[in-house]
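Chain A, query sequence.
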Amino acid sequence: MKKVMFISSVGGHLTQLLELKKIFNDYNYVLVTEKTDVTKDLKEKYKMEYLVYGSREYLFTYIFKFTFNILKSFYLFIKYRPNVIVTTGAHTSVPMCYIGRLFRRKVIFIESYAKRNSPTLSGRLVYPIATTFIIQWESMKEFYPKAKYFGGIY
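Chain A, predicted structure.
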């Protein structure tokens, strides 16, 4: 069975990723997100791993938390050895995408449904290395000409 890692930041990115939950059990999967009061109970429903929550609003502490998350992402990659990484962004997922490509894994990035007229920072960072880049609005072809459009995941 193919190993798939589903990874995203908390909030709307995780909400979008959970729209794919109907396919989780088709794979040997793990769901990775940041640990917060909102996400700690997800462990009861899904095979979970957590990264440290860090807001870019507090730049000094964010730098340390982001560095820790890069190291933990590498650990989780080695632990689960996914064949495919699926993400809806944002900053939490970018290191895992690069780690995955470094080890020649497929990376599927789904650009945020909330972005209709401008790209996200994580989208711009992952687009050059993603094996499949999916947009949820046709208007986003302007920024991601090689992206695939299938409509929204909602």
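The helical segments are 12-18, 21-24, 59-80, 94-102, 121-126. Residues 3-149 form a domain with the Rossmann fold fold (CATH 3.40.50.2000).
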